[in-house]
Specification:
This protein is α+β, with helices and mostly antiparallel strands and 210 residues long. It is built from 2 helices and 9 strands, in the order E-H-E-E-E-E-E-H-E-E-E. Strand 5 and strand 6 form a beta hairpin. It starts with 24 loop residues before the first strand and ends in a 10-residue tail after the last strand. About 13% of the residues have low confidence.
Length: 210
Amino acid sequence: MDFSIGGPSSTPSAPTPQATGTPTGGWLMTAVAPWGESEEDAFDQCLVDLGLGDCRLVQVKGAMLPMGFTAEQPRSLPMGSLVECHFSVAYSWDGGTACAGAAWARCNTPEGEEVAIVATIATEEDYEETEILLKRQMQRRLASRDLEIIEHGIAVDEVTAAEGHWGGVIAALILPDSLGIGGPVGRVREMSSSSTGLRTASDGGGNFSL
């Protein structure tokens, strides 16, 4: 089976109806923070730039995404939201560089069921090498599950730490509605980003072919 991604797969196809009433859409984003006083400060700056500074995060491990996953456009989230997040974070110090990446893929199983998987990576390599490593990781996840691609998205970013500071970079797949729990939330705060590293990934972006 050919697990490379490209060509027609870059055009999103119609999503299969969800098996439950819980929304399962999400989006890829990256953010960098080159002026951290510490690793923790750089991480927090990245969260704010991602729009997650006012959220409670649940970092989820594993390759599988909720059934019925679809790509959405980023949106502002209310204060106190409980958010499922698949992310990688990398740090550098005093002029050093680091990279982080995340990718998702909607696929069909051999039995014709539609599923979605995710992969993340953090490295001390440059942007190009990190993108290659992320694609290889996704290829292995597809192969081990015998999955055929429908559509996909990929996002990689790189940070260079300022002199005497910590740099942080996060790549995240954000699924704000998948948990369906969390209690009361507040209003949405409009916050201006201080980082130039904030990026989003469009549906079907990237190519896992090497």
